[in-house]
Write a structure and sequence with these properties.
- With 95 residues, the protein is an all-alpha fold.
- Helix 2 crosses helix 5.
Length: 95
């Protein structure tokens, strides 16, 4: 679709991830996103933002598995936006 029809808009997030794949992989493997948002909690550390978000998504989708999948997709979207930010700033890591 991208090569033949030159439709690039729907795949721009994947392009950003590909341009910054090493940085995104390293940061995602460190689980930086969940660690950062677990710092926000209500009254006790067990009531953190990750747990509340997962519980909310599980409630919306009426399934523990679909809720977890939705949370993971949100995390992937977050890393796509981080990669887009790095692309705009011209930051790339190459080996």
């Amino acid at each position: 679709m991208v090569d033949v029809k030159l439709v690039r808009r729907p795949t721009i997030l994947l392009q950003w991830i590909g341009l910054n794949a090493l940085i995104v992989y390293a940061l995602a493997a460190c689980e930086l996103f969940p660690a950062a948002i677990q710092g926000f909690y209500w009254r006790s550390p067990e009531n953190n933002l990750v747990s509340v978000t997962e519980l909310l998504l599980q409630t919306i989708f009426h399934s523990k598995r679909w809720g977890k999948l939705a949370f993971v997709l949100l995390e992937i979207l977050f890393w796509c936006l981080v990669a887009g930010f790095l692309h705009r700033k011209g930051v790339y890591l190459k080996l």
